[in-house]
Protein 1
Amino acid sequence: MSSIAVCPGSFDPITYGHVDIIRRGAKVFDKVYVVVLNNSAKNPLFTVEERISLIKEVTKDIPNVIVDEFSGLLVDYAKSVKANAILRGLRAVSDFEYEMQITSMNRVLNEDLETFFIMTNNQYSFLSSSIVKEVAKYNGNISTLVPPIVEKELQKKFEQK
Ligand SMILES: O=C(O)c1ccc2[nH]nc(Br)c2c1
């Protein structure tokens, strides 16, 4: 039985922290679906299509990664791709409470779908898409935080504003 994981997130935009988790997960699971949450409640900087394009570009050298989008319940998307695992990154203890709540909810919705956590590299323990956007907004150096293509697209976004 092949192991298929779904790695959900906003990825607005993808950071080196996300890439770290995806690369580590792709070594463990046969397939990793990196799925962009199409959540109308948030006001994203990048469109879903832009985020998917950036993730595809940044992970193009990882053959068992598939990039997709979903709206609605993660457990329903997981069932649609026959995933038997959810993959999440943990950056610091502060992530744990939220992740525990989400995992408990998903377990209620689908007892058979297990969540696996991978700890990010310590150098990314502070990193989030939000903090990267804040630094990029004021033209700060983000070259060690996101891949070059993401840095370039962020600069374009803030030049437009
Ligand atoms: O960028 C974020 O907002 C974010 C959130 C939660 C996260 N867990 N693991 C990672 Br890498 C990560 C990144």
Note: The longest strand covers residues 31-37.
Protein 2
Amino acid sequence: MLSRVPLIQAVTAAYAVGASYAQSTSTFHWPNAQLSYVDQQLFEGNLHFFFLSGCTPRDDTTISAQWLRIAYHDMSTHNVDDGSGGLDASIQFELDRPQNVGEGMAQSLSDFSSAQTVAPMFGTADTIALGAVIAVQACGGPFIPFRAGRVDASEAGPPTVPQPQQDLATHTELFRQQGFNATEMIALVACGHTFGGVRQVDFPQIITDPEDTFVDFDTTPAFDNTIVSQYLQNTTENVLVVGPNITTRSDLRIFSSDGNETMQSLLNPDTFTQTCGDLIERMINTVPNGVNLTQAISEPFDYLVLNPSPNATLTLLWADRQGSFCPSTGCSVESSGAQQIGFNIVSAQFTAKRYNFNATINGATSISKFWFEINNNDGSDPITVDNGGDGFVIEQDSVFIDNSRSETVLLTASFQQFDRLVVAVRGDATSSTASITTFDPKSTDTAPPFFPVFTTVNLILDETNPPDNGFIFFTGNVTTTTNFLNISATSDGETYTQTNFDMGAVDFLPVDL
Ligand code: HEM
């Protein structure tokens, strides 16, 4: 019996990356690395750490205002006439344009890079869009269902961000190109200018008094319709409405362009919230033709037990590699503990638990699929959670990371840290090779554009771990910030791959050297 063998890892990791039980109508089918990751980033990800104190102030404005503005400017390159441009992170290459002036731009991109949110299936464009969703909600705005799948541009788009000195006809045409009609233009500008304001150093032609370093669009930092009411009551101090320079009163020209009809309708707070939610959702989903976004996600669905019964017992069950239900060595284990999920502001209305399992799987009989049973211990029938009837299928059991043999190494002399991976390969040393390609979201760039780092490492045979029950072991070092990796191994002429292995799902033993 190969007790602590590598396949324990396959189960715990596989569970962590996707097994789920949610009392929702979600169509999620495991495995789906992209949707799993989106779910995690939306409801538990790093971006919400910027808003632990709510609508967080920064540099006279709020982080939310900076993040929403960059999303709009990035998306402004869209042209409905030929389907080009949209929210594609091309802003990373457009920061030297006067239309993108403002320290909030580079600062926001630096926020996104430091949050290390990007992944092989989730780029900077998706991060900018997610940032807008979280930013709006952090300041009391509506929840905007989120889709992923944007494709990052590798160069700048056209310079089509509206500028305050342009006339109404130019603005109307630019918004039409971006996919918004004249009424939607009025509302979208009001929604965008609900928070934040204008900085004197960026726009000295708008704020002529150097003493006025920053002028807010309205008197509340919140995502609310004060921008509208103060405009209609003539109490506004928005410099794009009442500033000394008539040429740059772009909000005044836009807001009044239909005789204030749209602004009057936005006086109703519910209409404001609903309209802004819909328009900002359309804004962040504006992408170049040919880019397909995922389904919209509005509630957590992945690897959670939602609204758990306090007395529930959860059991993990599996079938061996032949598909037999129960190998002689056993095929089920009860959960070894559970943690309450610390949801973020986007999902604070949910309660859910994540259960851990520690299964020992025989290396020879192995595993082909697993599933769960939830017993609420209240006399009701146990609930089977089996991925829509298919079970959670282990696509291949010939190559995987061995959790129990891998280590996180701290070099005490230099305080350097790295992960020493041990990869198990079914085969023998003479006919096997293995390599990994790692994805490290932590950019080595210090200013935008920020690029993640891909590295391919050929693994070497691990002399410290001798062959065990048909498996041999390879090893290689990777950065501790690596969030995903692909493993490829050749054994006896066959190639096995595991793609998008989630390093967040494993927990290596720490060792000091
Ligand atoms: C004709 C269209 C628009 C014009 C001319 C315009 C112009 C401006 C200007 C001049 C600023 C000041 C920036 C600075 O001082 O650095 C600003 C800020 C801002 N804009 Fe717009 N804008 C327009 C549309 C929009 C839209 C559609 C949105 C989002 C939906 C938006 C969101 C913001 C936000 C959130 C800020 C505040 C940024 C901060 O406080 O850091 N804008 N806008």
Note: The mean pLDDT is 91.
